[in-house]
Write a structure and sequence with these properties.
Blueprint lengths: L5 H38 L5 H63 L1
């Protein structure tokens, strides 16, 4: 819609060019801020997303392997528990007999 008023037409043109100029300024500010952020982030020695994902996958695999090994150890401990009890009770009996021999032997030596 055109008006007969030359002043309004000039104001509309000025406003349109100001909006275009402001858009250009906005783009320039965004570009400079992006460059500054990239410079700051690169100096912080941060890991990339790919590195993070790789380490996360390695940790998950290690956790899975650890769980499997833990179950295997528990199964081995359960299967060897009766053997340990028998060996421990036999060892105690031998140790007790040897201790009695030492005690009686030392008592004989002191009494003579």
């Amino acid at each position: 819609m055109q008006t007969d008023n030359k002043l309004l037409d000039d104001l509309a043109r000025v406003a349109a060019s100001a909006i275009g100029t402001l858009q250009g300024v906005r783009d320039e500010v965004e570009a400079r801020l992006r460059d500054q952020f990239e410079r700051i982030l690169s100096s912080m020695d941060l890991v990339t997303r790919e590195e993070f994902d790789a380490v996360k996958a390695m940790a998950a695999a290690a956790r899975h392997e650890n769980d499997a090994l833990e179950k295997r150890i528990e199964a081995l401990e359960k299967s060897s528990a009766p053997t340990k009890r028998r060996a421990a009770s036999g060892g105690k009996a031998k140790g007790t007999a040897a201790a009695k021999k030492r005690t009686t032997g030392s008592a004989r030596r002191t009494s003579t």
